[in-house]
Design brief:
Layout lengths: L2 E8 L4 H11 L6 E7 L5 H13 L3 E5 L3 H13 L4 E3 L2 H11 L15 H15 L14 E5 L5 H10 L4 E5 L9 H4 L4 E6 L2 H14 L11 H17 L4 E3 L5 H18 L8
Parallel strand pairs: 1-2, 1-3, 3-4, 5-6, 5-7, 7-8
């Protein structure tokens, strides 16, 4: 197994850098990576305190530093120590400059400034938490997206992930004995998406869930035939209402969310305000 030290240096919170590193590292499943995180590096003095740490644990240096002096100092230090250093945003920034015909603004943390988009994201997270698991269905019309599916089909984690992307999301568990409220079929604004999964996988997830709760009794919740009927009930509901369906059996939360966003964006382009979802 390969082992490397990965140093992440950012002049802001480092959130963007962490996401880039995570996405890249996902392509190397067997790698043993020791991460060193250095956020809020906004001065040469701060950087000079970090350089000895780079020397002590040599490896790849990944950075997002917009201040030219700080960036130059880091690059020089890495050259002296023969450490590879990569500017995570340089290629994209240069390409955008060429296309837009203007220079990028060198402001640390510009992508995280507290503008209208930031507050919209906070509002989306608050809305999503308040409308989890079928709660407050009278407000569903205010949602951007509504997820429906049987218990443990990844509705809540997917909703939270989407909320962090700025979407107001509500979700509802589908239960055979308890039909959804009529309001679900009258919605015009939200994009409704059904989540489904393989019954066998669902049984395993539910069994693990019960074990974490120290529940070892056999119940209908993990009965194979019962779970199959639940999944069939949900699929029939999705089909009857012509809602798009995503099978989450082999998808990560990120992959599921990406598919939902694609469906939502396509619907936004097709559906006029006030029309019923198609």
């Amino acid at each position: 197994m390969s082992r490397i030290h990965l140093h992440l240096l950012s002049d802001s919170t480092g959130e963007t850098l962490e996401m880039i590193a995570k996405a890249a590292l996902a392509q190397f499943e067997t790698a043993d990576v020791v991460r060193h995180f250095w956020p809020m590096v906004r001065s040469r003095a701060h950087l000079d305190r970090i350089v000895p740490e780079l020397a002590a644990s040599p490896g790849l240096v990944l950075y997002t530093l917009v201040n030219a002096d700080t960036r130059k100092r880091l690059e020089e230090s890495c050259r002296q120590m023969s450490l590879p250093a990569v500017d995570a945003l340089e290629t994209v920034t240069v390409a955008l400059e060429a296309q837009l015909g203007e220079e990028a603004h060198g402001r640390p943390g510009r992508q995280h400034r507290m503008d209208a988009a930031y507050f919209e994201r906070v509002e989306a997270i608050q809305f999503t938490i308040a409308h989890d698991d079928g709660i407050a269905h009278e407000n569903w019309e205010q949602a951007d997206i509504l997820l429906a599916g049987v218990s443990r089909s990844s509705k809540t984690p997917t909703s939270i992930y989407l909320a962090n992307r700025g979407y107001k999301v509500a979700n509802i568990p589908l239960v055979v004995e308890s039909p959804p409220p009529p309001a679900l079929y009258e919605l015009k604004g939200p994009t409704i998406v059904g989540l489904t999964t393989a019954p066998e996988r669902l049984v395993q997830i539910r069994r693990n869930r019960l074990l974490t709760l120290n529940e070892r009794e056999q119940t209908d919740y993990i009965d194979n035939e019962r779970v199959k009927k639940e999944v069939q009930f949900a699929r029939r509901l999705f089909s009857d209402n012509n809602w798009p369906v995503i099978d989450v059996t082999r998808r990560s939360i990120e992959e599921t969310a990406a598919a939902i966003i694609r469906i939502h964006n396509e619907r936004q382009r097709r559906v006029k305000p006030g029309e019923k979802p198609i």
